[in-house]
Write a structure and sequence with these properties.
This is General stress protein 17M-like domain-containing protein. Keywords: Membrane, Transmembrane, Transmembrane helix. By secondary structure, the chain is α+β, with helices and mostly antiparallel strands. It has two domains: about 70 residues, Alpha-Beta Plaits (2-Layer Sandwich); about 60 residues, no CATH class. The chain has four helices and three strands, in the order E-H-E-H-H-E-H. It has a three-stranded antiparallel β-sheet with strand order 1-3-2. Helix 2 packs antiparallel against helix 3. The longest helix is centred in the middle third of the chain and has 25 residues. It is elongated and about 70 Å long. It starts with about 25 loop residues before the first strand and ends in a 7-residue tail after the last helix. The relative contact order is 0.22.
Length: about 170
């Protein structure tokens, strides 16, 4: 059976075009993504075929870390600074493409309009949400499993056992 628009159903690089559950046998399980990356790096150093390997995050959680307190002053100040940068860039572009050489008026106009617009947008957004804190969201997993295609899973498991023993060969 062929894909509806031609091709093999896989994107360049061998990845599936649609969300697809991972396949393979578990060869290692780690508490952090960094440890799972280190394990795959170790496999690569040992010239293992890492194209057979997948890192899978299990027990996903959305973690929202509070990074600071919000106030009207901070919201309006941040809006004004963001608007100033945007306005300067637009004004600079308009000033550069002026037929009479570079003009300062578009830059100053862009700066003023950017500050006003972004400050108003920030005020409206803050008044609608009324969250008194800012935060950053991150998707994390409870553990990270390293899966490998069955044809080389046993070799991968043996190599990761060496890593667990401190990188010394077993046997």
């Amino acid at each position: 059976m062929s894909a509806p628009f031609g091709g093999s159903g896989r994107a360049a690089g061998g990845l599936p075009r649609l969300p697809t559950p991972p396949t393979g046998w578990p060869i290692g399980s780690y508490a952090t993504y960094g440890e799972a990356q280190q394990a795959v790096g170790f496999l690569a150093e040992k010239e293992f075929g890492v194209s057979d390997v997948t890192i899978v995050g299990v027990d996903l959680m959305l973690v929202e870390r509070v990074v600071g307190r919000l106030s009207w002053g901070r919201v309006l100040g941040t809006g004004a600074v963001s608007g100033a940068w945007f306005g300067l860039i637009i004004g600079l572009l308009l000033g550069m493409f002026n037929n009479q050489g570079f003009a300062w008026q578009p830059m100053i106009g862009g700066l003023v309009l950017g500050i006003l617009a972004w400050t108003v947008f920030a005020a409206i957004s803050y008044s609608m949400s009324r969250r008194d804190f800012s935060s950053a969201s991150q998707l994390v997993a409870g553990r990270y499993d390293v899966l490998c295609q069955p044809r080389s899973a046993e070799q991968g498991r043996e190599l990761l056992a060496q890593l667990a023993l401190g990188g010394r060969p077993t046997g």
